[in-house]
Amino acid sequence: MAKLTTDELIEAFKELTLIELSEFVKQFEETFEVTAAAPVAVAAAGAPAGGGDAGAAEEEQTEFDVVLESIGDKKIQVIKEVRALTSLGLKEAKDLVDSAPKAVLEGVDKDAADKAKEALEGAGATVSVK
Questions:
Q1: Which residues pair with 129 in a beta bridge?
Q2: Which terminus of the chain has fewer Cβ atoms in its 10 Å neighbourhood, N or C?
Q3: Per-residue burial over 60-98, b = 16 or more CB atoms within 10 Å of its CB, e = otherwise
Q4: Sign of the CA dihedral 94, 96, 101, 104?
Q5: What angle do CA 79, 85, 89 make, to 5 degrees?
Q6: How far apart are CA 92 and CA 105, in angstroms?
Q7: What is the C-alpha separation between 79 and 88, in angstroms, rounded?
Q8: 17 near 47, Cβ under 8 Å?
């Protein structure tokens, strides 16, 4: 087999669908017993050039971060909600609230993010889900 240049490999990746590219990365990791963080970044960067797959990838976001933007005037209620949503103790929850804007939950599903947002906003905080 002839050795492919980097440009030829990039052109070949542009021809693949996201699913095919994901399968390639898994096989690459298994074959070379590595974590292919850099090739995943290259694959993601090459996806928009491939066509309409970029929009589909954005719609399929499965993990969300709940970020406390500001605490409002009911700090104690916000601290109680942060403690209820996390396994933090009183001091840790207070420190998190005092350091707003700060992520309260990271990598949670859509339902959990929505429930956390409602609970924190009910306590008077300003919250965003990313």
A1: 66
A2: N
A3: eeeebebbbeebeeeeebbbbbbbebeebeeeebbebbe
A4: negative
A5: 55
A6: 14
A7: 10
A8: no
Amino acid (one-letter) located at 49: A
Beta bridge partners of 126: 70
**Which runs of consecutive H residues, i.e. helices, occur in 1-130?**
6-15, 18-32, 37-50, 53-59, 75-85, 90-98, 110-122
Q: Is the pTM for the entire model greater than 0.70?
A: no
CB-CB neighbours of 117 under 10 Å: 20
> pLDDT tens per residue, the chain (130 residues)?
578 888 888 888 888 888 888 888 888 878 887 775 544 444 444 545 544 455 555 566 778 888 888 888 888 888 888 888 887 888 888 888 888 788 888 888 888 888 888 888 888 888 888 8
